[in-house]
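Crash report, auto-generated. Payload:
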Amino acid sequence: MHRYIPHTEEEIKRMLQEIGVNSIEDLFVDVPKTIDGYNIPEGKDEFTVRKIVEGLAKENVSFDPENVFLGAGVYYHYIPTVVKHLASNPNFVTAYTPYQAEVSQGTLQMLFEYQTMMCELTGMEVANSSMYDGASAFAESLLMATRITGKTKMLVAQSINPEYRTVAKTYTKPQGIEILEVKYDETGKVDMTNLKSLLSEDVAAVAVAYPNFFGIIEDLKAIRELVPQNVVFIVVAEPVSLALLEAPGKFGADIVVGEGQALGVTPNLGGPGIGFFATLEKHVRKMPGRLIGETKDIEGKKGYVMILQTREQHIRREKATSNICSNQAYIALINAIYLSTMGPQGLKEVAWRSYNNAHVLAKMLEEKGFQRVFKGEFFNEFVIKVPENYREKWHAMVREGILGPIPIDRVYKSLGPSALVCATEVNTKTSMMKLVEVMSK
Amino acid sequence: MTIFEKSVPGRKGYELPVYDIEEVKCEIPEHLLRKEPPMLPEVSEVDVVRHYTDLALKNYSVDRGFYPLGSCTMKYNPKINEDMAALFANFHPFQPRETITGAIKLMGHLKELLCEITGTDDMTLQPAAGAHGELTGLLVARAYFEDKGELEKRRKVLVPDSAHGTNPASAAMAGFEVIELKSGEDGCVNLDELKAHLDDSVAVIMLTNPNTLGLFEKDILEIAKMAHEVGALLYYDGANLNAIMGRTRPGDMGFDIVHLNLHKTFSTPHGMGGPGSGPIGVKKHLAPYLPVPVVRKTENGYDLDYNLPKSIGMVRSFYGNFLVMVKAYTYILTMGNKGLKQVSDMAVLNANYLRKKLSRLYKVAYNRICMHEFVIDNEEFSRKTGVKTLDIAKRILDYGMHAPTIYFPLIVHEAMMIEPTETESKMTLDRFVEILEKIYEEAHNNPELVKKAPYTTPVRRLDDVSATKFPIFRYTRK
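Recovered output after restart:
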């Protein structure tokens, strides 16, 4: 028997006797036997398995994080050692969804604290306990806007991460939702004239990113002033930047969503990350996802449970606010440990260094003749014009150990040859000088 | 105590390297600058370590013991899977493709293995969970019918009343009208009921097989034939795949779309509710509609194919929960062909052993040979003793084990759904039986004792009614 299965021959015999059948085959009489095993290799010992998977891992190129200037939604930041160690606790790793609250208080309290931290960062009143990722959280925010307003027209800024907009199209199409794209102007911000011209009675929501895909910091105040109060204002936010930038909640956002990978999670080739989702109490019954609330036990002791479950699929079935069941709870734990360790000062320092490094790097590149495409204020990413052959150079930089700024002109064709440069606190002066040198060659 | 209450202004648990880069002037406009710092904890590293270690102690987990949640497949999660996933933690999804050939190859291998296991022709690994896979599968079906010019008339998705809640919810999200099929007296799909609803207005029939009662839909081949005769597609909810490995495949039974829960059958841990991974396999005719990118074999390896003009688009960023895929891949390499068959054999043996032993005192709904799980019907028990399924579940916690899934499937009142999985020994199962025997006795002799359970857990029974009525969504500093 395989080592993960404890049964001895003797036990199997006794169990079959207890059941009253002669063989294992007798248990499968209803099942049409269409195959005799699979056409796949036989199992292997763990040393051999390790060798195979390590072999595949080694076929990839890893980069020293200080030499990474690629962001576009996934970021390298310092991750304190405690994060991995505490999150590896098997009582977190191998627990299920907290259906039996009395033996899941660790999970429930952690998620309640995570919700609180996300409320604090976003300036919102309620945050759920996670979505799959930033893109699907954004898509669900549009569905929620339709539930709130009963309307189906969405104004979505072109400067929102292109993959988020692709996912949003996939999610919203069956609901008959129409997405109109709002242009950006020469500052890289939402083109206010264009936004104004698109606003009409039948608009459900206006969605912008903060900072947006180009790294530009949108003026949420000006946008909210333009957008009528009965239109749902959705902000896709980058959580690290929120230590430095005013919280979207302060500007009257109705829903704030985003990707939480930057908060202590390794890049993981893009997954798992985590979607965060925050809103106002008045909208909470239209909200997707699992919510944890505080309560008391029969002796008056404080405890935590899942709440407002009547929004969810296991109760409401086809009338649920979403079909989401499994989420990214484990990544919420990583976010919570990271934020606890960094605290308000640590996160602000990370945000400031990311901002500062990006601005220093921008200056260095500008001195070498690279022009910034947009004039607007930016956080830790910015777009530069690059030569026609940049894409080849981008691939060639790998040999120098550099993961360079990603070319974005295939998605934003009208920009012409251009690349999105990213810096965070992990980049150094030396690595930035090296990048500038390689790019100028 | 929450971590916020442990916070002391000015305390910190981090240290960044000395910062030696010249500082620029902050150019963020004043009104966009944060005025008040977020109320995050200000604690030391030791505080953080103790807080989260303490929280972990308040959790039950598979590593602590038996976790017989029906339809959840709480099997042992091998440690090597975690180590192997960690090898891929530092790759950026937008790295040049030639720098992630190993990762792409792994996805390619995994896809081939899972296609073989499900009997499907093509697959996307992008969905992040089972329900996400369902939505993806139904969007694929939608795109297929749209392409054929049939979407106007094919508005319905048929779902048995015993189905997981995600099935109807996913169908609604994909824009279909949900029609519930009443189960037959034997707990399976009733062919007459199916016939009554089946015509060319049906797009998809969603089934899980074995179904949520743990019974194999014995008419599955007939159901598939009926579905295909009216041009409908058959969808397989893979939550219960752990019962049939090595013997049959959803694709062989006639299913057109199959989702898998890698966090169930393929032992990647549940992580308190996620991340999961919900790949969907499809038959050839549906392959053009899969989300992009699709991993494909090429002349010199594997590559990502974004060139699917009929694709539904993307259902999340990038490639999916990649690290979860690494764990599932490691598991399949470890188990291999014979190992996977042993998994299902022993999962079904365990379920039947428990069913037989418990049926002496408890009423098993549809008490016949079951697959990997079965359902206990406590309606009569509860009428006689006043002890509800919820009370039994809470009392099990006192004895140091986790409760089964309760109040599901909806078609059994006071249901208790038990899935032991293959990684549990006879000794563990016998202990669980003893506990349920003890509770049976208690319910008859001292029902109040059971009704007030649990007693030994970190908190006693929690008031979830007022938690929802007067919700407290977050910690607020007094």
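Post-recovery validation: The two ends of chain A are 61 Å apart (CA to CA).
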